[in-house]
Specification:
Layout: H1 8-17, H2 24-40, E1 47-51, H3 57-66, E2 71-76, H4 88-96, E3 104-108, E4 121-127, H5 136-147, E5 150-158, H6 168-183, H7 196-205, E6 210-216, H8 223-233, H9 243-256, E7 268-273
Parallel strand pairs: 1-2, 1-4, 2-3, 4-5
Antiparallel strand pairs: 5-7, 6-7
Length: 274
C-alpha cells in the first residue's frame, strides 16, 4: 500500500472510538469517508438515512458527524453473510460494539423500495453504491421515494472524469466490469456506470434541486488496484461475449495494464440536492 498520512480528524476519530486502530487499509478508507461526510454538511442532531451502507465505511463517519443526539438508519439489500475480507455482519457487529453503536440502526436484506418509516429524515445518503443498481430506473425510483422522506439528499460516487493518466487504469477497470455485467450474468459490485451528469438528470426527474456539487480527492484509496485485479481475474470469461465487445474489452485491458509509475484511484464526486 502507498504511504499515507492520516490527518488530525482521522487520528481523533481512531482515538475516540477505538475502531480500525490496527487496520491500515480501513484507516485510509475512513479518512476519505470523513471527508465525504464533511462535504455533505451533515450536522449534529440530524436523523440520517443511509442507503447501501455495506460494511459501514460511510456509516461510522455519518454517526460521528450527527453526534450522540443524532441517529443513522443504515440499510443494505445484501445479506449479513455478503462481503470480504469481513462480511457485512462481521464488520457492522464490530461497529455496534463501539461507542458509535447506539447511534446506528442497521437493516440488511432490506430493499429500500419496501422500507417504511414513520419518522422523516433530515438527510438521505447514497455513498459509492449507485453502480450496484442493475437499471437506471431502479435508481430513479429510489430518488423518487426519497423525495417524500428526506429534506435533502447527499450522493457520492467515483468520478469518471479522470484528471490524470495515473487514474486511467481505474477508469478502464470499471469500464471492463460494467461490460462484464452486461454480457455475463454476475452479482459483482459494478452493474452500471453512472456519470455525474446522469445523476443530475435523475435527481431532476425526481424533483430534486441540486444545491451543491464538488470533487473529493480519492487518489490514494486502494479501490483502483482492487478493481484492476478483479478485472484481470475475469478476462477469460470475455470469450462468452460478442466479438465486437471482446475487441472493446481487449482495448480497455491493454490501456489498463499499460505500465505506469503511479496508479491512482478515481476521485469521488459529490452532489447535494433538496
Amino acid at each position: 500500500m502507498k504511504s499515507f498520512q492520516l490527518n488530525e480528524k482521522t487520528l481523533s476519530f481512531l482515538s475516540k472510538y477505538h475502531l480500525f486502530e490496527k487496520d491500515e487499509i480501513q484507516q485510509v478508507q475512513l479518512q476519505h469517508r470523513l471527508e465525504l461526510v464533511e462535504a455533505f454538511g451533515i450536522q449534529k442532531g440530524m436523523r440520517v438515512l443511509e442507503i447501501g451502507c455495506g460494511q459501514g465505511d460511510t456509516t461510522v463517519a455519518i454517526a460521528d458527524a450527527v453526534g450522540a443526539s443524532g441517529c443513522v438508519v443504515a440499510i443494505d439489500i445484501a445479506s449479513p453473510d455478503y462481503g470480504a475480507p469481513l462480511t457485512l455482519g462481521q464488520a457492522t457487529e464490530r461497529i455496534k460494539k463501539s461507542p458509535l453503536g447506539a447511534r446506528i440502526d442497521f437493516h440488511f436484506e432490506m430493499d429500500f423500495g419496501l422500507f417504511e418509516s414513520t419518522t422523516p429524515f433530515d438527510v438521505a445518503v447514497l455513498s459509492h453504491c449507485s453502480w450496484y443498481f442493475k437499471k437506471p430506473e431502479d435508481l430513479l425510483n429510489y430518488f423518487k421515494k426519497m423525495r417524500g422522506w428526506a429534506k435533502r439528499i447527499c450522493f457520492a460516487e467515483w468520478d469518471l472524469d479522470f484528471t490524470c493518466i495515473a487514474q486511467r487504469s481505474h477508469f478502464c477497470a470499471v469500464s471492463i466490469l460494467a461490460l462484464y455485467s452486461n454480457f455475463v450474468k454476475n452479482e459483482g459490485n459494478i452493474q452500471n456506470l453512472f456519470h455525474k451528469a446522469q445523476i443530475h438528470e435523475l435527481l431532476q426527474q425526481a424533483n430534486f434541486e441540486v444545491v451543491k456539487q464538488g470533487t473529493v480527492d480519492a487518489t490514494l484509496l486502494q479501490d483502483g488496484q482492487w478493481e484492476r485485479s478483479y478485472a484481470n481475474s475475469i478476462r477469460a470469461e470475455f470469450i462468452k461475449v460478442p466479438a465486437m465487445i471482446q475487441t472493446l474489452a481487449t482495448s480497455y485491458y491493454e490501456l489498463m495494464n499499460t505500465p505506469n509509475a503511479n496508479e491512482n484511484s478515481l476521485n469521488s464526486f459529490i452532489i447535494c440536492a433538496k
